[in-house]
């Protein structure tokens, strides 16, 4: 075979020529071919090829196979093939003996080159720790200038409210093109883009940017939901009702809300205000007549509290309706975020009259707390009540059961009105998911997350926590 002007071609190099004229430089970690006198005598193409291909070795020509070249002499072949051991009685007994004596723990796997890449490091005292590279984020933060879609997110966050299209502008849904009907497929405007869509195409609820001046999640179309959903964490922590300062925090005689609790609250802010008034009234009862207040031992061991305002009226058969909230005590002694409740019930017995009751239901164990984590649970109990004017007392013990569990609870209340009787009570207590959604702004948040999870205490509920602290101080003294 013909040779080039500068040296032999790659395919014409024999094993003898390689041994005489070339050697592999092991002082450097790359592939360098040098002549016997320190000058390179190989073609430039050979060096570039070797630098680009570390495995397999440089002897890849068919001529080396024809010459009977032994690849074990190539220094680039550093990995040896590990053959499985022969299975016989001697090897089996040797392995069992090594396991019993613990010798197999010290011996490594021979013949295999282990990787020098590790996420664990070893300290001077022998403790292991994660390598610093593990803490390096694999993607930039959401709203950093280095983010991939920063401009798109910025456009969404700084969007202006649109001008809604008139209902007469289209007779079909702008997404699925289905015709609108009066009963089965009505018109709905997307609050973000202003388009007209049917109910099936506007199932999502999202918080909108600050220029929309809306703190409750609004109905949006599916396309806008996909754009707004990645930003909900930012909007929840900055615009939701839960992170706002409480507005209704005056409960003295100068405020009409402080005179009488209404049985139904329209928002979580109303429920927080009602619960604060109920706790303040118990503070007054504890100061005037400590014997008729809630025992401090019961409140100290409470794992949670449900505070409701319920209206009750009837003769022989009584009807009850009211709303409230529930909070749980966490492992560190602090109180959880509140969850809204709705209570509907019936009573049967020797009773007559009407009254307005402020209930405090003491959840004395974790099973009772899990019962209130259910979307709906039932309670059955017996109690006696008497009310004359603004002063009244009700004491009940009931058993509650739901899909999350069951438990016993004790109920204390201050009542107002004209009512007397002894009755058997049955109630249905449900979680107001829509109220929680409007307050927290997160459609994926469940009651378990609120009471037993890591949801931060909302700033809007500070009057409730202040009233709880005052009640514990009064009961302790």
UniProtKB/TrEMBL annotation:
- Leader peptide range in chain numbering: none
> What Gene Ontology molecular-function terms does this entry list?
phosphatidylinositol binding; zinc ion binding
- In this chain the FYVE-type domain maps to 167-229
What keywords are assigned to this protein? Metal-binding, Zinc, Zinc-finger
Which chain positions lie within coiled-coil regions? none
SUPFAM superfamilies under this entry?
FYVE/PHD zinc finger
One Pfam entry name: Ysc84
Which portions of the sequence form the region Disordered?
1-21, 33-52
Instruction: Identify the PANTHER family for this entry.
Output: SH3 DOMAIN-CONTAINING YSC84-LIKE PROTEIN 1 (PTHR15629:SF2), SH3YL1 PROTEIN (PTHR15629)
Provide the protein name. Answer: FYVE zinc finger
What organism does the UniProt record list as the source? Dillenia turbinata
């Amino acid at each position: 075979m013909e040779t080039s002007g500068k040296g032999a071609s790659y395919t014409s190099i024999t094993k003898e020529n390689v041994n005489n004229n070339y050697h592999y430089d092991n002082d450097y970690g790359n592939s360098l071919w040098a002549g016997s006198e320190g000058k390179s005598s190989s073609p430039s193409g050979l060096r570039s090829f070797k630098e680009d291909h570390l495995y397999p070795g440089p002897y890849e020509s068919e001529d080396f196979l024809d010459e009977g070249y032994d690849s074990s002499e190539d220094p680039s072949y550093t990995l040896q093939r590990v053959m499985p051991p022969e299975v016989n009685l001697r090897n089996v007994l040797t392995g069992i003996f090594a396991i019993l004596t613990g010798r197999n723990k010290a011996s490594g796997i021979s013949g295999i080159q282990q990787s020098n890449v590790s996420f664990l490091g070893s300290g001077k005292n022998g403790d292991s720790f994660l390598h610093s590279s593990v803490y390096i984020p694999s993607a930039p933060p959401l709203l950093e200038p280095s983010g991939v879609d920063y401009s798109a997110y910025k456009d969404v966050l700084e969007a202006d409210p649109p001008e809604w299209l008139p209902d007469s502008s289209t007779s079909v849904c702008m997404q699925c093109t289905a015709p609108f009907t009066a009963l089965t497929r009505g018109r709905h405007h997307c609050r973000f883009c202003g388009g007209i869509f049917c109910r099936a195409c506007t199932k999502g609820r999202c918080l909108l940017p600050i220029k929309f001046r809306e703190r409750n999640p609004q109905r949006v179309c599916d396309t806008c939901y996909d754009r707004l959903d990645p930003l909900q964490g930012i909007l929840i922590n900055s615009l939701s009702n839960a992170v706002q300062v409480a507005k209704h925090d005056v409960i003295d005689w100068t405020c009409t809300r402080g005179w009488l609790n209404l049985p139904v609250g329209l928002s979580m802010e109303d429920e927080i205000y009602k619960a604060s008034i109920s706790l303040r009234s118990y503070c007054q009862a504890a100061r005037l007549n400590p014997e008729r207040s809630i025992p401090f031992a019961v409140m100290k061991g409470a794992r949670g509290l449900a505070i409701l305002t319920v209206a009750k009226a009837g003769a022989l058969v009584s009807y009850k309706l009211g709303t409230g909230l529930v909070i749980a005590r966490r492992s560190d002694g602090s109180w959880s975020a509140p969850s809204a409740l709705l209570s509907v019930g019936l009573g049967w017995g020797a009773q007559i009259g009407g009254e307005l009751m402020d209930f405090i239901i003491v959840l004395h164990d974790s099973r009772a707390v899990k019962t209130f984590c259910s979307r709906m649970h039932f309670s059955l109990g017996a109690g006696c009540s008497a009310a004359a004017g603004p002063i009244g007392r009700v004491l009940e013990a009931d058993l509650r059961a739901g899909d999350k569990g069951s438990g016993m609870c004790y109920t204390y209340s201050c009542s107002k009105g004209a009512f007397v009787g002894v009755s058997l009570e049955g109630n249905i207590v449900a979680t107001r998911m829509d109220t929680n959604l409007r307050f927290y702004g997160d459609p994926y948040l469940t009651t378990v997350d609120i009471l037993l999870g890591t949801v931060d205490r909302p700033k809007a509920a500070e009057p409730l926590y202040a009233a709880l602290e005052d009640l514990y101080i009064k009961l302790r003294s």
